[in-house]
Amino acid sequence: MTPDAFEPLIRQFAPGSRLLAAQPLTGGLSAGMTAVTIERADGSLEDFVVRVQGRRSYEYDPGATQRMQLSLETLSGVLPSVPEPVFMDPHGLFFGTPCLVMRRLPGRPNCARDFGPVYAEAASARLAAIHRAGSLAGDLSFLPSFEYRVELELDHTPEAPDGPLQEARIREGLGSVWPPEPANRPGLLHGDYWPGNLLWEDGRLTGVVDWEETAVGDPLADLAIARLDVLFAFGREAQAAFTRRYLAVSPDIDPGNLPIWDLYAALRPANELQEWAAGWPELGRPDVTLQTMQADHARFVEEAAVRLFTA
């Protein structure tokens, strides 16, 4: 998308301003992300991110962008470093699918292999803070139930399950224990808490972005999703440290159902892992490949199955 394509949008949400720069951002699979810098009529400069929902994402969930705007409006007052929404085009008038303009937060993803210990310490604490924030955010009835999302997934078995990722085995195991006996109070869930959605500056966590999959449900669902992605990015030690730290700062969370949620997390990349792997070189990690992710995924599934079915 050329910089000129953003001019009509700028005129709409910032009349009298001039577009100075438009730079594509890396990481997003369900949306196109572009950082734009504008100059106001008084000479002041402002940085924004324009998030254009992808066509496939829009066809699957046409209300995702509007729900994300509501989430950010609700959470920006109770959580640190949440992007502030400033304009939304719900009808795709500018780019063909809905877009959301947000103020740009400082920092960028840090996925360096040796960043694992810092990530485990700070990112786990921030995830726990997100889960606690639900009680402060007010009305979250516009968010879907995460458990219902899982039920929909289990009800729609694909014609060709992902063999390399043991999708059929995961579905069978998960289906045999679903639904789990509720053990935790439903909380606010980010829904896609992976290293590419966290921003850092000078080793400090400055922002959590991409709130498209926000939901309400068992906090262990978020923890499991994060655990798998920490494993992909930083390895087993960082994954274990992340989990220990999260549970240490979340004493009210009962971890008993974590193997069930680990199985669900392992189901998410079925038939999509190659696409997930394709984004890692842009994040500075060409060593994270489809092959390494498949191996990590297999160990993750096996460990979850052992904890769940041989305990």
Detailed description of the structure:
- There is one protein chain.
- It is built from 11 helices and 9 strands.
- By secondary structure, it is an alpha+beta fold.
- The chain has 2 domains: 3-103, Phosphorylase Kinase, domain 1; 113-309, Alpha-Beta Complex (Aminoglycoside 3'-phosphotransferase, Chain: A, domain 2).
- A 5-stranded antiparallel sheet has the order 1-2-3-5-4. Strands 6-9 form a two-stranded antiparallel sheet. A two-stranded antiparallel sheet has the order 7-8.
- A hairpin with a 6-residue loop joins strand 1 (18-24) and strand 2.
- Helix 4 packs antiparallel against helix 7, helix 4 packs parallel to helix 8 (236-248) and helix 6 packs antiparallel against helix 9 (258-267).
- The N and C termini lie far apart (53 Å).
- The model has no long low-confidence stretch (mean pLDDT 95).
How many beta-strand elements?
9
N-to-C series of helices and strands: HEEEHHEEHHHEEEEHHHHH
Q: If strands are numbered along the chain, what order do they take across the biggest sheet?
A: 1-2-3-5-4
Mean pLDDT metric:
95
Keywords:
311 residues, alpha+beta, Phosphorylase Kinase, domain 1, 2 domains, two-stranded antiparallel ribbon, 9 strands, 41% helix
Indicate the topology.
Elements: H1 7-13, E1 18-24, E2 31-39, E3 45-53, H2 55-60, H3 64-75, E4 85-89, E5 99-103, H4 116-133, H5 146-155, H6 167-177, E6 187-189, E7 198-201, E8 204-208, E9 215-217, H7 219-234, H8 236-248, H9 258-267, H10 273-278, H11 290-309
Helix pairs in contact: 4-7, 4-8, 6-9, 7-8, 7-9, 9-11
Short summary:
With 311 residues, this protein is an alpha+beta fold. Helix content is 41%, strand content 16%. It has two domains: 3-103, Phosphorylase Kinase, domain 1; 113-309, Aminoglycoside 3'-phosphotransferase, Chain: A, domain 2 (Alpha-Beta Complex).
